Amino acid sequence: MFESIRKHSKFVMILLFLLIIPSFIFVGVSQNYFTESSQTVARVDGHDITQQDWDSAHRAESDRLRAQNPNMDAKLLDSPEARYATLEKLVRDRVLVAAAQKMHLTTTDSELVRTLQEIPAIAALKKPDGSLDAEAYKALVGAQGMTPEGFEANLRKELALNQVLGSVTATSFATDVQLKQAMDALYQRREIQVARFDAAAFVSKVQANEADLKAFYEANTGLFKQPEEATVEYVQLDLAAVAAGISLSEDDLRTYYKENAQRLAGPEERRASHILINAPKDAPAAEREKAKAKAEALLAQVRKDPKSFADVAKKESQDPGSAPSGGDLGYFGHGAMVKPFEEAVFKMKEGEISDVIESDFGYHIIELTGIKAPKVPSFEEMRPKLEADLKQQQAQRKFAEVAETFTNGVYEQSESLQPIADKLKLSIHKAEHVTRQVAPGAQGPLANARFLEALFSKDSLENKRNTDAVELAPSSLVAGRVVQYSPARTLAMDEVGDKLKQLYTQKKAAELAVEEGKAKLVQWKAKPETAQLPAAVEVGRDQAKDLPREVLDAAMRASTQTLPAWEGVDLGSTGYAVIKINRITERPATEAQALEQQKAQFTQWASVAEVTAYYEQLKKQFKVQMKVPRP
What we know:
The relative contact order is 0.14. The longest helix is centred in the middle third of the chain and has 34 residues, at 379-412. By secondary structure, the chain is of the alpha+beta class. The radius of gyration is 39 Å and the shape is extended. A 4-stranded antiparallel sheet has the order 14-3-16-15. It is built from 24 helices and 17 strands. Strand 11 (470-473) and strand 12 (476-486) form a beta hairpin. Helix 3 crosses helix 5 (80-103), helix 5 crosses helix 9 and helix 13 crosses helix 17.
């Protein structure tokens, strides 16, 4: 059949063409056959932002936030508010791009270089001679999925965009009058006396009968709501649990000891001296050749008389750190020196002098002066560490296999956790009064929001089935089940117990304290000489003196046209406070430097409003249209 089609392929193509064309004529050609349509969600300067643009930007923003905060709840990123915030950011970027293009804003090469040098991660890549390690720089930006050229192009673009709003912040200023109005409120000091009427002192005066308690209960049923809670069981699989089920034979331990005793004992260290002739890697070739020739001459000299190595190093070495001590570098291990130097040292024998070794710093002549090999402990001494290390290694190799068994087991035998616990020798943990939200002080799996979400899912609550295996962390899984569930409800009055009387007493005691405090305030205002007040203290916005925030705010807000001034503060459930303000100390403005610092700070605050207003003007100028409503 296929051979027949092949021989008559032209006829078959004509037939298919005749069959397909009429279908387009009668049904119509939709643009979806050729292009992917996407709804417009915003428009900036006549250019559309599509739903596809929005979705792509939000995925990128979500990935960035998850990378910075691995424990972030995924629901927060998928909320309508979070998605709309991404759209606003997308619109802002488009507005700034349009403004930068209209203003012809660019970034010069010198500005780009200066900004790159100010990035700590890039600044750390400098070599001793001050040049940038190009390979390390390429690897750094490559880890972000970019090339150096692409990274620099993006940075150049960002710097140009920053100039749009930067032009506003750079022109902001504050007058001395504005500064005084803003800063005096912050730095002003007030000498006050505070009388406290604590609710606790009035508890003994409260008498509660059954009718009062019943009326309080009926008026405040919201205070007696019990949230939904559950009694749960769970099993956890981690490396420690896998390791606990591993048995090691004596042969395994002894073999591991023989193969790793030297490594477990600690690294070998070596002591060396060197003579350095400086020749930076980017120095001219002629200069490097001259330095190498000098090093070779010195090598011939010290090989002729090895005992003169220290004297030659003192006179000729260009390493200011080691030359005074005859080139001695002390003991060091692997990774302490540049690679060519280290490779040479760890191949040498004690007392040996190396050939001329080239590194990024120049040319070295090395003398190995000591080898410090760590003492290898006996098998019995190392047995505990050998067992722990070997079990950990085997557990890591075995975890994936056991994790699959665990995941399948809790799903396939969903009526109980006991089968998987028995199979993998895991402990079943039980917890009571577990709520849907992470409780303060919760630890282990019960401190994981994803696990709680699985426990309180519809299937788990209604059918009492095991949850799926939830990953708490790398190499850590947990599964649980709800044993008993109590929905949220309002406790009956006879279930409340002492809590009802306690809350009623607290409320009435606070009311008595407020009543007493207000009466004293009226009395002391009329007859200040009768006031019974503690010693005065000087307070300010930045100097609370352990006073409650409500008291400090009231003291600093109170009108001081006439002194002394009086103020009363209701502290809610804790009582009442009467404040007497005796005098005011203005902020000293004699220190010019401090004043300028404050002016700069205030200017920065003021520029926020100016930048916001300027951005709103840009949105109007470039005709920003939001096609979706704010959630």
